[in-house]
Task: structure prediction
Amino acid sequence: MLVSAPAGSGKSTLVNGWLDGRGGASGWLQIDEGDDDPSRFWSGVAATLDDDVPGLGDAVRAATSDGLDAVVTTVVNEVAGIEVSIVLVVDDYHLVTNPDVHRSVEQLVERLPRNLVLVVSTRVDPPFRLGRLRVRDQLTEVRADDLRFDLDEARWLLDADIVGLGNVAVDRLLQRTEGWAAGLVLAALSLRKSADVDAFVDSFHGDDQLVADYLADEFLETLLDDRDRLLDASVLERMSGPLIDELTGGDDGARWLQSIAASNQLVISLDRNGTWFRFHHLLRDMLRLEAQRTAPERVAELHRIAGDWHDRAGSADEAIEHLLQAGESERAADLIAANATRLLNRGQTFTVTRLLDRLGDTAQHHGGAATVWGWICFVTGRFAEAKTWLERARPLDTDEDDTGLIEALAIMVHTADGDITSALRAAENGPPAVHPTHAMVLGGVRALAGLFDEAAPLLDTARELAEARPDYFALAVNPLYQAIAEIEQGRTTRAHELATNALAFADTHRFHNAAHMALGHSVLARTCDDRATALEAASRGVELARRSPEKIMLAYALAAAADAGLEHGGPSADDHLSEARSIVATCVDPGVAGTYLGRVEARHGLAERPAANADLVEELSDRELSVLRFLPSGLSQREIAGELYVSLNTVKTHCKAIYRKLGVDGRQAAVQVARERGLT
Result:
């Protein structure tokens, strides 16, 4: 159903009345500007329907990493799986401008389950293919003409018999308001205090905006005893009794809201329990203008109070919005930083970016906000910008509140860029890990570097911290780094067990689509004897790894897929191998991914098997050790020569000797063997 009409036409009142008469299950999603974020929009849909479709919220969160198509499919399947009919109302849809949201909602309309009725209430038509929906008889439309009051309806609304309005006077009001519901409601409120009905009707004139302006004072005067409380409440997008009490210092907010909603069509209930309400938008706008005109300093204070209340209530999104409106940008930045991980894990990158943009210059000088900007740039693959924000964040972290996050981000950026040496340097001399993700990153980079003994205690710490919270994402991913360490040390049975259990845990807690679960599937591909299972795991590992910007994880997954394909006759083995080679070639230091790829090529006869290097063929000289220490740096041989004040030919000679003595065939392999032997 599409309910499309201008503001004040009675759309929300109509839909509310229809729901009351219909009965049954329903959910009401009130759109605000933040719902332009596709992930937040669909999270809102899921939360709205979650009571009637148990588990929908978790299912949508899990599907978010698969993209909007998967999210819509999940909603359709989950709703279709329940026995009851349900109505979903999406109110104020005109606030949505994101094309991705429009496309995904139209997908839902196209695939609507039989037991779901979708009601879209909007001031302007959405960019859907309405013509096709009309032809298919999939669309019921309610428009402004349908909502305009006729004479009998206007007489009822205006209490014409009680206030002494004849048909001529009612018709004149109808003409001047063009049947506009809000204008008639406001006229009815003013008529109640008018001693001369005919004079009022004569003086009532002008277009819709003038009518609204004219009646603002009139309406407020009809509720004189409530005037201050209405003005205070106007800063809110939605209201509850405790929140009203917090703003006004009263103790009857719930009763007051229920009372004015029962007697006033301009206050609208948002749920069937009478807990949350909102003002009609025209009324809200008029109240806000009046509040800003009469006490602008009070408005900022009210936003601060509302922000504090939502913060304590755990409604971080609304708390941030009110604090920004109050001009409390530092506190808003604190909350954005504190909640960024939660929002990013839900896929709400758009929301976090929008909030950071609204901080303006504050983000440049706030350590937490700068760190979050770095993470945003990282997850969107903008590594150069991520490094810039890291450099801004470090000097701002004077209390070391964000040091762990900064360190973890630096490690992730270097790892994603294919530079394990720099990632290890970023992990040195940091604070003790107090967050499971930080500990997991510290252990994970060491596992990917082949420093398995160093990785083990850090990964154990990550598990303990994750169990204490609990942090289910860390509990799903952490064992995968342990599995990598086990399989690289030849303990395939233990690696298989860790990966299997981690993937099962991730499936239970709906993290099975997370990019990092690629490592688990890659380990299964390497440890399964069954051909079909191994090839399926290898393919899934590559699919998930492509969702992350991390070069090393993708190179490892491709190498595992090539290994399984060559072992079991898979169709894409050569392509996977070629892509893995191309990625490793761009890495300064690919860690175990490069070593594993070399073993795959050698084992399947695609490259010369390197000499065994259990013991050094010959001890490295001091000069060779000096050159060796520059190899992980990414400097060219000419640049290394400049650093050591020797000729380029001398460096080339030393490199050849280093490769021979370490039993390797190139620079990357030399770096990895040297690291494993503690030579760098």
User: Anything to note?
Assistant: Residues 205-210, 609-614 have pLDDT under 50 and may be disordered. The domain at 622-676 is CATH 1.10.10.10 (Arc Repressor Mutant, subunit A). Residues 627 and 644 are 8 Å apart (CA to CA). The two ends are 68 Å apart (CA to CA).
